[in-house]
Amino acid sequence: MNFDYNEEQQLLADSVRRFLAKDYGFEARKKIVSSEDGWSAEVWAQLAEMGLTGLPFSPDFGGFGGGAVDLMGVMEAAGDALLVEPYLPTVMAGQFVARAGSDAQKKAMLPLVVEGKLKLAFAHTEKGARYNLSRVSASAKSSGAGWEITGEKAVVLGAAAAGRLVVSANTGKGMSLFLVDAKDAKLKSYVTLDEMRAADVVLKGAKGELLGTEGGALALVEEVVDFATALLCAEAVGAMKFTCDTTLEYLKTRKQFGVTIGTFQALQHRMVDMYVSYEQAKSMACLACSKVDSPADAKDRARAVSAAKIKVADNARHISQEAIQLHGGMGMTEEMKVSHSFRRLTMIAQQFGDAEHHLARFARLS
Amino acid sequence: MDLNYSQDESAFRDEVRGWLKANLPQDLRDKIANYEELSRDDLLRWHRILAKKGWVAPAWPKEWGGTDWNVVQRYIFEEECGFAGTPPLIPFGLSMCGPVLLRFGTPEQKKRFLPQIYNGEVFWCQGYSEPGSGSDLASLKMKAERQGDHYLCNGQKIWTTLGHYADWIFCLVRTDSSLAKRQEGISFLLIDMKTPGITVRPLILMDGGHEVNEVFFENVKVPVENLIYEEGKGWTVAKYLLGHERMNTGRIGASKRELAKLKDFAAKQAGDDGRPLTEDPRFRDKLTRVEVELMALEITNLRFLDQMRRSGQPPGADVSMLKIKGTEIQQALTELSMQAVGPLAQPFKAVANDPDFDRFTAGLAPRYCNFRKTSIYAGSNEIQRNIISKMTLGL
Q1: So what's the ipTM on this one?
Q2: pTM value?
Q3: Which of B295, B324, B394 sits opposite A287 (nearest CB)?
């Protein structure tokens, strides 16, 4: 039993934190968010420089062969800084290539991903499918040596920044995955509530390259979504920590009735409950990341991730709502970073399945 | 990061689990499983079985019978006891008076009291709270006046858990009421419950059970040699005890057992549509949320232990978090158990001696009532929040 990060993990997390503290302050982030692309090429280059884009990929392709636990500290730092660059989408979609790609596909793509030269996105969710990973109506039909993909995908995070998309579509043999060049897809881009970039992706006979075996992709989709969900839980923990810390700071400085409002017991107890919520969520993020790295089996992994997401979703809501309440009117304004962490935590609660979705999934797996 | 126990720790857990399985008497196991009240004999019998094995006071120094286990082993032992459903080890002697004697007792006091505590020869209780002094303990009024070789004690204690079983009581008393700082006039006294002038009156709780009492002291003479540490330094002793909390404040082992039991019997209850209650999404989701909260608490507890093991520092305010969450979980489990049986939660006790009366089901609602105490006792959950607020958050 050991809950510490090892030296490498700690050093990396520290250097990411230092970089983000220096170059990704609230004002710098504001500029990035309001820029045309909504993400910063300089920041992305720095992330690659620090080895983050190579972290979860094999040394065969220039990466470091890390797992979710190795990424935890990085994700916490990203959550703290409210990083909007499409890191998780790239890491996540890259996992499909790493886990199911042919040697040629891996050789062609992963070194570029590791070097930060290629960004990816996972285009899976469709309108009407809600959180059900098996509901896909996009279809793929064989065409010469390749495939033609037709369908519409919703809320594909990082789509506009991505060079290639990992797209799910049905063939006669069931759900399969395809690599599609982003330029072959039509994107309807937008800014999300938490200031990231996403798009609805329209594919009309887009050229696709089969990734992995034809049919039966659901198990892999679940595996990689669980991996990404564990990372999202770690990111949430970082955002929760920021939210708690900044609220505590506010309680210690804001004065009313001639005293700092942190002297009021009604507020002290709510602040304590926020920290308890954070600690409980952190524990579950540790569980999720450990289990996706070394599960006994798929069910063991899925149960741990769903349990973690239930807790993270519930506690993200608790912490973010209380933070705004304790900040009073100021918390409502765009000027305060806490209103942005509120937005991020609110969206995290619903990303990859809300608490209710994971409650049902957890019960199915019991 | 590795959330699993090491090989040695797993082997230790298996050893404890195996030993408990072989040595927990069946009649005690059944009483616990059926939520029956335990007698003084039941409690002492289990105490003595553990004393004989050498496991009754793991945290004590080796020379007084301790086991030399590290914090993780102590945690494993306590959680395995909870999971196996052993009778509780009553903390007043082993975890409260004992550590106080070890830290502040004279050699004579140690020799006189520690072996009796270890072997379960005397039953101890705690005299802290008074009618006017609950959370505000330092306002206590029970008077102890020095008269030659003894103190003359007058006053009242309340919420004295198992005082009706006890041979001895340790009390916080006021030896000087003239001081401006009220913490300074308090002393720590050991009192023989057979001393003339002591009256124990039961306080029956709303579940019908007799656990707590009022204890009245009228001109009770306590020999001066029963004073622990110095006169007027009782608050120092009391504070030391607060920092000496046990590792199983979260009661995770016991809650795991209760959760498994609840799942098992809820699956046998029919929901409104006739299907098992555990398939009713509304009930099922409430159950899962408690299960997840318990998983989170277990890992949180292990994280704190891991920190403690590294730093060698006592747990501090973290224990307060375990108390808050642990008791919330215990209460949620008793509430769901009661809700699981629906209208059948209403029967309480048979009027005539009816052998068919379902005592287990009838015990669920009283147990729910009883467990409301957990967020009040041992420092109410609001006091725990005050502690975290002050110690951890600096508010």
Answers
A1: 0.94
A2: 0.95
A3: B295
